Amino acid sequence: MTNPEYTPTPIDRDALTYVAGHRGMVGSAIWRRLARDGFSRLIGAGHRELDLTDREAVFAYFRANRPRHVFLAAAKVGGIMANDTHPVDFLSVNLRIQTNVMDAALAHGTERLLFLGSSCIYPKLAPQPITEDALLTGHLEPTNDAYAIAKIAGIIGTQAVRRQYGLPWISAMPTNLYGPEDNFALIGSHVLPAMIRRYDEAAATGATSITNWGTGTPRREFLHVDDMADACLYLMDHYDGPSQVNVGTGRDCTIAELAALVAEATGYTGEVRWDGSKPDGTPQKLLDVGLLAALGWRPRYGLREGIASTVAWYRDHKEDFRDRDAEQEAAGPR
Fold first, then answer.
1. Number of domains in the chain
2. pLDDT of res. 334
3. Would you call 18 a catalytic residue per the annotation?
4. Which pLDDT band, with edges at 50, 70 and 90, does 153 fall under?
5. How many whole angstroms separate alpha carbon 147 and alpha carbon 188?
6. Which CATH number fits the domain that encloses residue 152?
7. How much is the mean pLDDT over the chain?
8. What's this model's pTM, rounded to 2 decimal places?
9. Does residue 260 sit within a domain?
10. Active-site annotation holder among 18, 61, 122, 147
11. CA nearest 255: which of 288, 221, 228, 230?
């Protein structure tokens, strides 16, 4: 059962702290944030060093290192098409990653763990804005239900550890994230990085029109990944409770409005068309961030500013993504 004597205080900056997924968009942002705040003993392992779906390897890693704190940001992620066409992969891989890391952390003395989920855990037609208690109250969005089920299992996993072992493990549910180290590849990317890449290429080549998927009417909330990382550390320092905590801005926009901001940031001035035969997904997904706000946290980045800085980052790294596209094409279908 939960330890009634535990009061959240700033976690020890000198304790060994493991960031699972530290080379991904979210994990790398968390790593940067922790390093900036003086964490002196950060550890991480890339996929070639440690396959988190390999249970024996994960237990060996925890046995050798015994981290006191864990930020569980590792996950298989992808856009609406990737989730819809490869549900087995998103379910199986994420369940194995989460279970292996949590079980190993529990077995080897991790005191404080934060699990990173996703706002897709909530019902497709949940009342807006979505509060934390909407979890498991309705049907999921079918295009990403497998991924959502895996993330729901992670939430239940932290709650189960709290009930059975009294450890102050917590979970955070971010809205749609974007920023440095996002996936801008042609295959599998989310809506905003995919849009940034296509609009940037259209602006560079002088294209006169762009066609976006869907109708442009769904409403989405977007949070800069550096704000997400800051919120993760804030929660580890200030929050202890069984409920997952929504992390977002509390504001949304239509996909058409998002496209206009991307056009502005990239300098694209051509025509924008919409292909309504392609799926829109959930009509609206806006998180109620009242719990996090009551704890005293606020985001720093506005959407226009965040998109502009992300476009600049992408332009500095675009050749890297062309190389990854070539590797994917050479590898063929998997």
1. 1
2. 28
3. no
4. very high
5. 14
6. 3.40.50.720
7. 93
8. 0.91
9. no
10. 147
11. 221
